[in-house]
Specification:
The chain is an alpha+beta fold. The chain is built from 11 helices and 9 strands. This is AraC family transcriptional regulator.
Length: about 290
């Protein structure tokens, strides 16, 4: 199973590849490709893991995935149930940064864009205040052809380069040198965690999945995610708890706690506040206030 290197269908006639997908769910394995990926999630929800970044993604989000940055858009469980009839709708724009650097971005007028593209190793999430304009330009890139597509794409890169509060998708670029064997192992680990987060997962259990001793696993996991196993698992559980709270489909915060794998409510409240910056009750209250 080769899951790390992923080949994008790049045409020799095109510098910029635009791909619109309507599918039951996103590609379900950790992977990477040499192209930078601009991803507009038109419809779909789940968890994005990119490098040492992990956060829920929602419909309307826009991301930039760096070249060779290992990532997975892991859809919620309901997308894998055919009876639910759910689909994802996305627009992806792929480009080779080295190709751009050696050609278009060599012009002196492109200095600002060149610096932005050169710093894309860790990727970004586009802030909501910039997202609507970005989506409009992505539509223009989709609809344009030939030189007009290139012109629209340069406009898109320009808007990225001047946008404020861009949130990096990782804090290290060690993923650039991850081997295929390591990538397959990390995929097995992530797949196991996102499938079994509701259950108690011991260090011995996850170490066996990775085929490592517990001590070696801790070092390995920290090296590739910049997080401890416990902190990563807690983050995953808190992200799922946020989804439950936003949906309103729960009777008590105790239920949210046990449904997302926490052993007791006290621990759930402590970890939730440490991760999100507010208690589950405050998070729920603030979300309802935004709806009003």
């Amino acid at each position: 199973m080769k899951v790390v290197q992923f080949t994008i269908p790049v045409s020799k006639e095109n510098t910029i590849v635009v791909q619109e997908d309507i599918l039951p769910h996103y590609y379900n394995h950790l992977h990477r490709h040499r192209e930078v990926q601009i991803e507009w999630v038109i419809e779909g929800t789940g968890i994005l893991i990119a490098g040492n970044y992990m956060q829920r993604f929602e419909s309307g989000d826009v991301y930039i995935i760096g070249a060779n940055q290992s990532h997975i858009f892991k859809n919620d469980e309901t997308y894998f149930d055919s009876e639910e009839g759910k689909q994802i709708h996305s627009v992806s724009i792929f480009f080779n940064p080295h190709q751009l650097m050696n050609n278009i971005l060599n012009l002196p007028e492109m200095n600002g864009i060149r610096k932005f593209v050169d710093g894309l190793h860790n990727g970004f999430q586009i802030p909501k205040e910039s997202a609507e304009l970005i989506k409009t330009i992505i539509k223009e890139v989709m609809q344009a052809k030939d030189s007009l597509r290139v012109a629209s794409f340069i406009t898109l890169l320009h808007q990225f380069s001047i946008a404020r509060n861009m949130q990096p998708l990782a804090t290290n670029n060690s993923e650039h040198i991850i081997s295929e064997v390591e990538g397959i192992r990390m995929d097995h680990i992530f797949q196991y965690l996102v499938t079994n987060y509701k259950n108690h997962i011991s260090l011995n259990e996850i170490s066996e999945v990775a085929n490592l001793t517990p001590q070696a696993f801790c070092r390995y996991f920290k090296k590739h995610t910049d997080k401890t196993f416990v902190s990563f698992l807690n983050e995953l559980r808190v992200n799922e708890a946020c989804k439950m709270i936003v949906s309103g489909k729960f009777d008590s915060f105790s239920e949210v706690s046990y449904q997302t794998g926490f052993d007791n409510v006290t621990n759930f409240n402590r970890v939730f506040k440490k991760t999100i910056g507010k208690s589950p009750r405050e998070y729920h209250r603030d979300f309802r206030a935004r709806l009003i």
